[in-house]
Amino acid sequence: MWDPIGIKDEPKAQSEYDGYIGDVYKLLIGGASDLEITERLLYIVRETMRLEKAAAADMGETVSALRNIHLPPHAD
Questions:
Q1: Residue 45 lies inside a defined structural domain of this protein
Q2: How many domains does the chain have?
Q3: What's the pLDDT tens digit per position in 7-17?
């Protein structure tokens, strides 16, 4: 589970990451590569959350989990 700021067990913070879903969803349905998704996640973590020490290797499990989500076919 992607939880860069460690809030998964905090009941009042369950919607904390919701604002990032749209961009990641667009990448997934648009056929983005794993590298493109990794770069977006890194941008979110480094620039928005200010966790500068985050690395691409930290995103591998999350990208794999995202790839396992069954998404509807993209319609243009």
A1: yes
A2: 1
A3: 889 989 889 89
State residue 53's pLDDT score.
87
Structure token pair of residue 17: 């990451």
Q: How far is CA 30 from CA 11, 46, 48, 69, 75, in A?
A: 32, 23, 23, 14, 10
- Contact partners, residue 42, CB within 8 Å, separation at least 6: 54, 55, 56, 59
Is 35 among the domain residues?
A: yes
Q: Which domain holds residue 54?
A: 18-67
**In a domain? residue 2:** no
Across 49-72, average pLDDT: 89
Calpha distance 15→70 (Å, rounded):
22
